[in-house]
Amino acid sequence: MSPILFWVFAILMLVFAVSVVLNRNPVASALSLVVSFLGLAALFVSLDAFFIGVIQVLVYAGAVMVLFLFIIMLLDVRAEERRKLNLAAVGGGALVAVIFASQLYAVLRRFTLGSQAFPALDLSSFPDHKLNDVQQVGMTLFTTHNLPFQVVGVLILVATVGVVVLSKRELK
Q1: For the chain, how big is the Rg over CA atoms in Å?
Q2: What is the per-residue pLDDT across 30-55, written as a single tens digit (0 to 9) for each?
């Protein structure tokens, strides 16, 4: 991928990621998140990680965004839009963001390996180098990373049940 396309997709992704945070309308924020996911998928494809790019579009831009939009529909959006802007919360959030950015800059400035080129992978060192990408990811996911995979599934289920319980309207 040419450097121009890299910068176009990187800037597109970052602009829409900032738009996710700054939008007051949750539906517009969710749609900005979709565009940010698509920009990230394009960056993965540019790194020849085609499987991760396709999964980024299918899982995150597709299924997770449908879940987010379902949760937004359950919430009372009109009550959220009527809320006033809390200046103390905005100031505290800005302070935390500045502290985080300064810490990140300090760590990255001392990280010398980041400026070196990444060596090419030697496929003969992998025992399953004859498998394609999907088979390798599947074998790794269900053998080495089985517990984290199950924990993420339970976490998503608990979050969805929590949103449904919190958005339940009380009868008067």
Answers
A1: 21
A2: 889 889 999 999 998 888 778 888 88
Question: Do 72 and 30 contact (CB within 8 A), yes or no?
Answer: yes
Look up residue 103 and give its two tokens.
């810490």
Domain containing 69 — which CATH number? 1.20.120.1200
Among residues 44, 67, 83, the one where a domain terminates is 83
The position carrying tokens 């379902």 is: 70
Q: Kindly tell me the sign of the dihedral angle through the C-alpha atoms of 69, 70, 71, 74.
A: positive
CA distance 77 to 27: 9
pLDDT tens per residue across span 103-124: 989 988 888 876 777 676 666 6
pTM score: 0.57
| Any domain includes 98 | no
Report d(CA 89, CA 97) in Å as an integer: 12
What DSSP letter does each residue of 4-60 carry, written as one string?
HHHHHHHHHHHHHHHHHHH-SSHHHHHHHHHHHHHHHHHHHHHTT-HHHHHHIIIII
What is the total count of domains within the chain?
2
**DSSP at 132:** -
